[in-house]
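Components:
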Amino acid sequence: PCLSTRTKTFFSPSKTINPTNHDHKFQTYTWHEFKFFVDASKGNKINGISELKKYFHRFGYMKMDYNSLNFTDLFDDHLEHALIKYQEKLGLLVTGKLDENTVSQIISPRCGVSDSTPKLFMHAKRN
Amino acid sequence: YAFFTGKPRWSRSIPITLTYAFSKEYVINSLSMLEIKDAFQRAFNHWASVIPVTFMESNDYGFADIKIGFYKGDHGDGESFDGVLGVLAHAFSPETGRFHLDAAETWAVDFEREKSDVAIDLESVATHEIGHLLGLAHTSVQEAVMFPSLKPREKKVDLKMDDIKGIQALYGSNPNFSYKALSESDTSTNNG
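Structure:
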């Protein structure tokens, strides 16, 4: 996926980003619509950015208990912190912002294993 | 390079032989079994060439150390696959041996033949996931096999210095391995 023809349109609430959705209409480019978050800035409420928080939680950049975590559409401190950790871990320029390089990396297909301490199930012992 | 918490590795004495088998139930039809097996054999060989571990294919799926299958959506381990692209595969740390690939991907062994824009190189993903099965976690080194992402139509099968140093920290070096075999660019990139 490339962002060379990025638009400034933010994510439409009428659409759904759902990485676990198996509906065929979502199967072309999973996470691809995160590209609309390029240049989104902290403090703003951005429709759909809660899905990005779920992404960061899934891959080990938000440590809070999933059930108690309120994934709002606010670009808050939690998201900025996760973003910085993500940029550090993947060797990106650490800006704390959703710049094009970072978003391009986020939307790339990837391994399902967490980037931080892998989840317990990935570390299960043979029984 | 990085390890899983507790630095787990296959604990049997070195040299280690691990068996692997393919599920007969969870398969894909877009590639022949021969093509799939060839790609995996190459992937296992990348690791076997640098550490004292041998991989042997087995027909006994139930008793194999490494169990390989292509799954769709929710397949019972709590980490559902998500259709085309997104998450491509996942594998468990030692000594579990489970290796799951997303059956919905356009898996490819030859980009000349598979023209799809969303084709994913099977050998590249297999090589990465075998790193997890052996005990490596994700690295920050973008060129390395253990970097977490892989773009469509990208091929990344050659172990880089980061991968090799990581896996040799767990298992030691294959006596036949020599750093001279690595290209100069690999050596210089990672020494930096």
